[in-house]
Design brief:
This protein is an alpha/beta fold. The protein contains ten helices and 15 strands.
Length: about 400
């Protein structure tokens, strides 16, 4: 800012002198008009952006029921599993007569983000699903902004929390259950073979904690790719770490059936242990090397009843994961009794410490949003499997 003069007389003298000088200049000079400046060029306007069409709801208005979306793949590689879950969800609604709940199924196989947006547009205030962890990560922010909780069917614990609840079975719980049972039967020296990948890493971490918690000793642990050469190399390294009483194979039943004969060569007396993945396959006993193995998973007693009702209605057997869809709807129906029509889903009810009962047995959500399942231990036999340690009926 320019400084102002504080001497009025000097300021008046300056103005007079300046005015006289200006008059002389005008008298002695011809005024030449300045050329008019050229107008600046018009700014280039970007082409208009076409508004993206927003989805519209095609569902009729409903003032007597709360809307619940089932997000599962009905197309693509996982369509069979997704259809089983969707069918079981509808069967649960029929079995319970859930008059305050309306279920709509959305196909995540054609785009999970579009499915979630359409579900919110349709007025759904609870999501059951998706199935895959990457799909949950995609839709979680969308659901969160809309105030819609997500009860996902994944087993990836990294996606739980902040409005996302995990109903799937996690390797940590099954590993802890079967290791604790084995230790109670006198086995103290443990080993593990884990496949490369996220599931294998989580199973390995769970094995370390389970053995320590049980009071056993972890002799060794090796990872492998799913090919015979890698399995043989991993077993050679594992057998070089010392003798063990029990060895966990943290892979599917089908893949474990290929590993079992190789284990029997180097450790013929070791008890084989499996995870909840084994519970999805009914023909484990076809592999002689697997007979006598133990694994932890959900009870099959009520699922067998569900299978019969499912087959009678749909003409085919369901995938084992269909129970997740059934139990998720049972949960929604139970809480729906106190869910005011048109209001957000009462998430606080999900944290009932007494838990819930379903086809897969008792379960409850921890503070981390992960379902804690009551699991049984089964022993593989030639005819299938038999229960050697029943699941608890509830939570203390």
């Amino acid at each position: 800012m320019a400084e102002q003069s504080h001497h009025p007389q000097a300021r008046r003298a300056f103005i007079l002198v300046a005015a006289a000088g200006l008059g002389l200049a005008l008298a002695g000079c011809q005024i030449v008009p300045k050329p008019r400046p050229e107008a600046p060029p018009e700014p280039v306007r970007p082409p208009p952006v076409e508004a993206q069409p927003q989805p519209e709801s095609n569902l009729p208005s409903d003032a007597t029921r709360n809307r619940v979306a089932v997000l599962v793949p009905l197309s693509g590689a996982n369509a069979g599993v997704g259809q089983s879950i969707a069918n079981a969800a509808n069967l649960a609604l029929l079995d319970t007569g859930g008059e305050r709940i309306r279920i709509t199924v959305y196909d995540t196989g054609k785009g999970v983000q579009a499915a979630a947006i359409q579900a919110i547009t349709d007025g759904n205030r609870l999501f059951l699903g998706p199935l895959l962890a990457e799909d949950v990560r995609t839709i979680a922010p969308i659901a969160r902004r809309a105030g819609v909780p997500v009860i996902a069917f994944s087993n990836d614990t990294s996606i739980a929390g902040d409005g996302v609840y995990l109903l799937g079975f996690t390797p940590g719980q099954s590993v802890s259950r079967v290791v604790g049972f084995a230790h109670g039967r006198g086995l103290t020296r443990f080993a593990a073979l884990t496949p490369e990948g996220v599931y294998g890493r989580r199973a390995a971490q769970a094995m370390i904690g389970a053995v320590e918690s049980a009071g056993g000793r972890l002799i060794g642990m090796q990872s492998f790719d799913r090919n015979p050469a890698s399995v043989k190399a991993a077993l050679a390294r594992l057998n070089g770490q010392g003798a063990y009483d029990a060895v966990l194979v943290a892979d599917s039943g089908r893949n474990s059936a290929g590993v079992a004969p190789l284990i029997r060569v180097g450790a013929p007396s070791a008890k084989m242990l499996g995870t909840e993945l084994w519970s999805t396959e009914a023909d484990l006993g076809r592999t002689p090397a697997l007979r006598g193995a133990w694994y932890a998973g959900p009870s099959d007693a009520m699922f067998n009843q569900l299978r019969s009702r499912y087959r009678a209605r749909y003409g085919v057997n369901p995938y084992r994961l269909a129970s997740l869809g059934y139990d998720a709807v049972l949960l929604a129906v139970r809480i729906g009794k106190d869910w005011r029509i048109g209001r957000p889903f009462p998430q606080v009810e999900l944290r009932d410490p007494g838990g819930f009962a379903g086809v897969d047995g008792a379960f409850r959500f921890g503070s981390d949003g992960i379902a804690q399942h009551s699991l049984e231990v089964r022993e593989v036999s030639a005819a299938g499997s038999t229960v050697v340690s029943p699941a608890a009926k509830g939570f203390d």
